[in-house]
Amino acid sequence: GPPVVALTTVGQFDSPVDVAWRTGDATLFVVEQGGRIVPVRDGQPGDAVLDIRDQTTGDGERGLLGLTFSPDGTTAYIDHTDGDDDTVIAAYAVGPDGVFDAASRRELLLIDQPYPNHNGGNVTIGPDAMLYIGMGDGGSAGDPERRALNVGTLLGKILRIDPTPSGDAPYTIPPDNPFVGIEGARPEIWSVGVRNPWRMAFDPATGDLWFGDVGQGEIEEVDVAWAADGAGRGLNFGWSAFEGSQRYNDDQPADGATPPVFEYPHGDAGCSISGGAVYRGSAIPALSGWYVFGDYCSGNLTALQVQDRAVVGTTVLGNIASISAVRAGPDGELYVTSVAGTVSAVVAG
């Protein structure tokens, strides 16, 4: 039969939206939307290791939204909106004790956000040690300025940068990025045609990049950038020519769009996808290789079984209100954050 799991609460927090780990450290770092990062050690929440509540507004889709660490664990990268509701990608030095050095803050990117919603918010270090950033289309509804397929803007894209400074520049453009040297195109762009890739993650076993893209009015979708095909390099995920597999803005080109691996209509299943991680842990063998994601509206925690790039099985594992992220820890086990206040571990049922 399908995998069976149980959910155990790790702790209570103030609107948790993400969790992250660093190499060689069992600490679970919990991201609170209001602007704090709280460490959990041996099951006990500690004092905040970062507090930027005075630099952000944690309401709606704004706030401190994402966290990832450099491969050596000494640098943290965060994604937050600022007082003007624009997106900031910032780096901090992190001490051996896990405390962020506030004085070391370095801003890598400031991305103007024309509307308060669809800010993206995901930062992930890839297997190539590059920093991948999920950027929403700028917001409002229906991609009114047609940004997602416009390579002259960073909105509606997955970005890829080398977070190492280069001369006076706070980061370096990887030379193999697809739009390097193309007139009028932003060289930071890795993939185009996304609406709000709120949560994305690499499968540690394969290097495939998975993300949930939040839909407009009708369809939620799961997208995969397969490692064997370049892990998303130069791919177009369709928005706003398509919402899921359905044609959306007729004035946007339909050619070359990569369809979602999975989609579901708004309704009982939900209305806002919160990705997602491929399970590679050892505690729940029946779940091995399945992609697990949540939905903010329905609370459903859903698993997809994929073979030969096609979904061959789906099952609802459980329900947690207001799911904001599903993340895999360094041991491959899964954690679910809920803005209602909990971080939960997915354990054998």
Describe the secondary structure blueprint for this structure.
Blueprint: E1 5-12, E2 16-22, E3 25-32, E4 36-41, E5 44-45, E6 50-51, E7 64-69, E8 75-81, E9 87-93, E10 106-111, E11 122-125, E12 131-135, E13 157-161, E14 189-192, E15 199-202, E16 209-213, E17 219-225, E18 242-243, E19 246-247, E20 262-265, E21 273-278, E22 291-295, E23 300-307, E24 310-319, E25 323-328, E26 334-338, E27 342-348
Antiparallel strand pairs: 1-27, 2-3, 3-4, 4-5, 4-6, 7-8, 8-9, 9-10, 11-12, 12-13, 13-14, 15-16, 16-17, 17-20, 18-19, 21-22, 22-23, 23-24, 25-26, 26-27
Shape: globular
Largest sheet, in brief, is: 5 strands, antiparallel
Task: Classify the fold: give the CATH topology.
Answer: Neuraminidase
As a whole number of angstroms, the C-alpha radius of gyration is 19 Å
Query: What is the CATH architecture term?
Result: 6 Propeller
The CATH class: Mainly Beta
Unreliable sequence segments: none
Q: Helix-strand pattern, N to C? A: EEEEEEEEEEEEEEEEEEEEEEEEEEE
| Strand residue percentage | 35-45%
What's the domain count? 1
CATH superfamily: TolB, C-terminal domain
Report the mean per-residue pLDDT as an integer: 94
Number of helices: 0
Topology, number of strands = 27
Approximate helicity band = under 10%
Classify the secondary structure makeup into a structural class. mainly beta
Distance between the termini: 13 Å
Question: What keywords describe this structure?
Answer:
Neuraminidase; 5-stranded antiparallel β-sheet; 349 residues; mainly beta; single chain
Could you please describe the fold and organization of this structure?
The protein is mainly β. It has one domain: TolB, C-terminal domain (Neuraminidase, 6 Propeller). Helices cover 0% and strands 42% of the residues. The protein contains no helices and 27 strands. Strands 2, 3, 4, 5 and 6 form a 5-stranded antiparallel beta sheet that branches.
